[in-house]
Write a sequence for this structure.
């Protein structure tokens, strides 16, 4: 592919991303107004933000997202992903649960996107400010107490070279205090999709792997460091595996529920479960691939991102 074509594709993908970002606040506002009377935790707004993220990937000429693993269909838990770039926000949009995310306060001050995050019930934090951090963790603790899962990027900021940075203690203290299991989530390829110090979007296959949970039952606050290092070690091993050649398309038995939209197919692979809110768990691998024909995509939830 010639440099000119690559540049044009990148420019198109960037314009599409900006267009979708422009939709975040109007969509969040409409959903919030329509559901405020019966959805105090704003889960429908979170779902709408996830949907926008998934549709952004579906429309992009540059990206493919593949998800492996499972999350419980009900109950509270703490998701801890690694952080490579802002594209991680789109990767976590494909996780099979609506989560409440914590992110740096500056993102929440961005017009449209930050306003949408507020409406979705995401939690801002001022980096380096203890009082702000304590308040944010208190809000997440309340979500967990009400049975809602939460997500935190334990590195605190994105990695500039793809290496795993040291983890903060906050996510693990929160999980232990709430008695909630920790689900490590390894994300590989997001740094290639949007390298550090550039606003250009590049072609990438972003791979997401949900690892088995790390239980916290019986742990005390004194075990925070041990839990933190165990989760980090698991993520490091998973990232090393994801850095290798991607497996061929497909993988794993299970029912496929395809939805075609503008020549690109989003396929959910469900293992030992049904794609519904009644299933106890579902293992999904979603991938985008060229396909002829057009039809509206169906059964697509989606997310937002937080740094």
């Amino acid at each position: 592919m010639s440099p000119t074509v690559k540049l044009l594709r990148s420019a198109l993908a960037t314009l599409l991303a900006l267009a979708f970002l422009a939709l975040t606040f109007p969509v969040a506002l409409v959903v919030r107004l329509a559901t405020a009377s019966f959805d105090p935790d704003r889960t429908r707004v979170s779902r709408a933000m996830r949907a926008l993220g998934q549709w952004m990937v579906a429309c992009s000429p540059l990206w493919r997202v593949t998800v492996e693993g499972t999350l419980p269909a009900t109950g509270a838990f703490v998701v801890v992903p690694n952080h490579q770039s802002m594209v991680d926000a789109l990767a976590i949009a494909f996780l099979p649960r609506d989560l409440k995310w914590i992110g740096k306060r500056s993102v929440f001050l961005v017009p449209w996107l930050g306003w949408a995050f507020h409406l979705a019930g995401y939690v801002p934090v001022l980096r380096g400010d203890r009082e702000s951090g304590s308040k944010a963790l208190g809000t997440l603790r309340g979500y967990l107490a009400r049975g809602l899962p939460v997500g935190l990027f334990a590195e605190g900021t994105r990695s500039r070279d793809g290496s795993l940075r040291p983890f903060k203690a906050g996510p693990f203290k929160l999980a232990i205090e709430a008695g909630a299991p920790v689900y490590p989530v390894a994300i590989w390829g997001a740094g290639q999709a949007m390298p550090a110090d550039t606003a250009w979007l590049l072609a990438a296959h972003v791979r997401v792997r949900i690892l088995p949970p790390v239980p916290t039952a019986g742990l005390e606050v004194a075990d925070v460091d041990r839990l933190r290092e165990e989760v980090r070690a698991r993520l490091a091993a998973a990232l090393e595996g994801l850095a290798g050649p991607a497996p061929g398309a497909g993988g794993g038995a299970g029912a496929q529920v395809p939805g075609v939209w503008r020549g690109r197919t989003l396929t959910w692979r469900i293992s030992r479960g049904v794609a519904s809110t009644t299933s106890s768990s579902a293992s999904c691998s979603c991938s985008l691939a060229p396909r002829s024909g057009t039809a509206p995509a169906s059964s697509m939830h989606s997310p937002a991102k937080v740094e």
User: Anything to note?
Assistant: DSSP finds nine helices and twelve strands in the chain. Residues 51 and 300 are 6 Å apart (CA to CA). The radius of gyration is 18 Å. Confidence is low (pLDDT under 50) at residues 248-307.
